[in-house]
Amino acid sequence: xxxxxxxxxxxxxxxxxxxxxxxxxxxxxxxxxxxxxxxxxxxxxxxxxxxxxxxxxxxxxxxxxxxxxxxxxxxxxxxxxxxxxxxxxxxxxxxxxxxxxxxxxxxxxxxxxxxxxxxxxxxxxxxxxxxxxxxxxxxxxxxxxxxxxxxxxxxxxxxxxxxxxxxxxxxxxxxxxxxxxxxxxxxxxxxxxxxxxxxxxxxxxxxxxxxxxxxxxxxxxxxxxxxxxxxxxxxxxxxxxxxxxxxxxxxxxxxxxxxxxxxxxxxxxxxxxxxxxxxxxxxxxxxxxxxxxxxxxxxxxxxxx
Amino acid sequence: xxxxxxxxxxxxxxxxxxxxxxxxxxxxxxxxxxxxxxxxxxxxxxxxxxxxxxxxxxxxxxxxxxxxxxxxxxxxxxxxxxxxxxxxxxxxxxxxxxxxxxxxxxxxxxxxxxxxxxxxxxxxxxxxxxxxxxxxxxxxxxxxxxxxxxxxxxxxxxxxxxxxxxxxxxxxxxxxxxxxxxxxxxxxxxxxxxxxxxxxxxxxxxxxxxxxxxxxxxxxxxxxxxxxxxxxxxxxxxxxxxxxxxxxxxxxxxxxxxxxxxxxxxxxx
Lengths: 305, 269
Hints:
Chain A has helices at about 45-50, 75-80, 95-105, 110-125, 140-150, 170-185, 195-200, 220-225, 240-250, 270-280, 290-300, and strands at about 5-15, 20-30, 35, 60-65, 65-70, 80-85, 155-160, 190-195, 205-210, 215-220, 230-235, 255-260, 260-265, 285-290.
């Protein structure tokens, strides 16, 4: 049991009458990077908040680092790091002061917080900003500071709620590097994200959530292979041809139609070019199957706000 | 407002909060910030009370002459100390605390650490009182320089200012717990703080009031603060003053508990 850092059984969260997390169960192993994916309002952030003790659980069981999340919340908070969605930096202070003050909340003496803080700023490559006011930082730098802050108490586990949302691609790449660096050090991590590519690359395992439930869970590669296959053949069609084409591909291939576009799933034992013969169009694309295909398949493709 | 009843408020008021070192951490965060802008903060602490001394003490005092056997300025001075403490606490624990609660989300950040909400709220109340006492102290030093401190017991007004500040800080924190936006505080100041600074025996003795109003004034914390501070400032002392201190202490405890419960409802759901 020692190598399980988080375990939920029938975990539920209700706000009033509204159930946002509906009886999910999962285990997260030590050193693992675990991803929670899902559309907006799927229940990812609520799940995270229950795990890092920002909101009480409404039902089920939740253990973090072997401790009961309800009764041992402050014990847990000593041993975890949190990077919330909105950074939550203290705008009254400079970058380094933020780390010192946050360290003091963790009972760290100022000198310890300062030396650890400088080291973390270097690790997150924002050490040249240590005397800057938080307000002057870019979005990416703020996020990196928030991650450094989450590490100040040398946590055994790190929670990151949408660590790359709202950042430009360069800043996102930097954060990915930082997270990979942390993973290499053996840090157990839980993160939520909208970015499939990010989840595919960083997460050892992930769960796709919607309406407060897990739709599927596993290694990203396995999920892609099991739900989609190795490749996807895409082509567009006219509304009137949809039924005809469906009938034609149904026998040989799994598929989904997103608006007026067919997506055929090519399994391990199939070949993409076999599909080409079936389809009377020159405008088709063969590409590798991705986590995005899995996501669209299991979570559906309606627009969410 | 769901579950808003006298019974629930009473329950909130008598629920003992869990406290620990976190209170000091939260207090220290605010002190750390205060230290950064010490000069700017101190300057404003001197200006307003000095204006009062000039306008009411010297200006108006010239026409008033003596009140209750002392020059008007000596009657007024302890009230300025008390009012400064009250207003300092009321400002810090409404506008500043609300900013940390809703705008900067400072409390939510602290909640990610082992510090409990009880400790956050109490640390904030203590800080509001601390800042208010700094202001009172600044005013007191002005009085010393102006030669207006004539009795050794006058120095005891400072600990009383602490009590009054704590009391007002706790009340203001409850208001913060209910506030929807900054405008809510405009009402709090217009309906409670400003009338209190005028009617709590500050500028004229309560004996000017009809007796029912004198009784009503006893419900105001500032009345008790002004009374004790004036007695000590003028070198008078009686055991009855302990009753006034007890009243302020009781308000502090009850409203602190209430503030803890109310702010928890804002932060945890």
